[in-house]
Amino acid sequence: MCKILSIETSIAVCSIAIHENGQLLALMELFQDNVHGSKLVPSIKSLMDQSGLGLKDLGAIAVSQGPGSYTGLRIGVATAKGLAFAHDLPLIGVDSLDALGRQLAHQVEEDACIVPMIDARRMEVYRKILDHTGETLVDLKPEVLDEHAFQEYLSRSKVYFLGNANAKTRSVISSSNAVFVDKLNSATSVGEIAFQKYKLGLSADIAYFEPNYLKEFMVLKSKKNPLLS
């Protein structure tokens, strides 16, 4: 029996879950901005106490590794690494978009696509394109949203969009095949994927594990200062 503590801090939601053999035992989610630094560790302690568990009862620590908020990822990964190192537990990194998309896996039409997205800046998003089972069709890529975005897929089947970029995606995409689902990143699906990776022995090297910030995408040239162009 393997119990996994999962941490999801890639967006504003601070989400923590405990799974046993991939089945959810307990979940705590805080829908507040900028609370990761002050609330994450106390929330982990509270959830563990409510579940009657100690860190000695865990088999692994899992964490959403990005993409997402720089600050949120930094705090979540640092906390996960600290717990894993201090208690000699495997650390399992889970792609934020894989976990987000998993919430719709096997719940949509067989020819449909699932597009998990995390808001970046302006009209940009981080996205993946998954099939109806949650397997990757098109890998992680930053994308600028406009009226032509995702037309290759929208022209032939339903496309299910989910994540915290739905509002601005809806503002530019009007296809009848576009379905917007109000689901955000959650430690629930992080824990489900983490258990599959645990069974395969796919843990990270704690010393070298870093979040996927997509830094090269976030560093943009200034249009105001010619010295930076």
Order of helices and strands: EEEHEHEHEEEHEHEHH
* Strand order, sheet with most strands: 3-2-1-4-5
What would you call the structural class? alpha/beta
Task: Please work out how many helical segments DSSP would assign.
Answer: 7
Shape: globular
Q: Give the fraction of residues assigned to helices.
A: 25-40%
Question: What's the mean pLDDT score?
Answer: 92
The span between the termini is: 56 Å
Q: How can the largest sheet be summarized?
A: 5 strands, mixed
Total DSSP E strands: 10
Strand content: 25-35%
In short:
The chain is 28% helix and 27% strand. It has 229 residues and is an alpha/beta fold. The longest helix has 17 residues, at 70-86.
Q: Overview of this structure, please?
A:
- It is globular and about 50 Å long.
- The longest helix is centred in the middle third of the chain and has 17 residues.
- The protein is built from seven helices and ten strands.
- It has 229 residues and is an alpha/beta fold.
- The strands form two sheets. A five-stranded mixed β-sheet has the order 3-2-1-4-5, sandwiched between helices.
- The C terminus is likely disordered.
